């Protein structure tokens, strides 16, 4: 018997899915992936099947927002092909993972902005977009002393005019109008904050991709 998302077939509530909805509403995304993974295991152990309205796109993106692309890929792989074919939102979520995996920065922003996300998924997609932009800004501030407006625009998902305004007015970068090159002003948070090992590894991988 399937366990419905908004209640249960036998009249008892579904506390796990209630916790998932609460985590989304309260923007507690650090808990979301574990909640969904654990509930999925509980359903499988009980011999039940997932409800028709299981939040597949949220499940994939819950790992993305926690910087765990491998787990997001595994969620996709164990999702039935019929579900993939019938859920445009799940496919759109998977496109984000694919573009992040290949370091296609412009593709990531296009995938995030190019789908009309449901009310349930929108907060997670917004968090991913904001986090990704912040990560790219930290990357530019750390890996470059100068960078072209065009390249910075691609990393930040902004038009070139928006990029110049954002970086010069909000972050103190300096534009050379003749060459269209930006002189980078390192972010104080990057300079002063000691990154943990996972952050350092992520940054190293990004820089390696830029240089090869």
UniProtKB/TrEMBL annotation:
Using the record's annotation, list all stretches that form the CSN8/PSMD8/EIF3K domain.
Answer: 53-187
What Gene3D superfamilies does the record tag this protein with?
Answer: 1.25.40.990
Q: Which GO terms describe its biological process?
A: COP9 signalosome assembly; protein deneddylation
InterPro entries assigned: COP9_CSN8, CSN8_PSD8_EIF3K
Q: Which GO terms describe its cellular component?
A: COP9 signalosome; cytoplasm
Grouped into one coarse class, the protein's main location is cytoplasm
The subcellular location is: Cytoplasm; Nucleus
Tell me which Pfam families the record gives: CSN8_PSD8_EIF3K
What are the entry keywords?
Answer: Cytoplasm, Nucleus, Signalosome
| Name this protein carries in UniProt | CSN8/PSMD8/EIF3K domain-containing protein
Q: Which gene encodes it?
A: LOC112291545
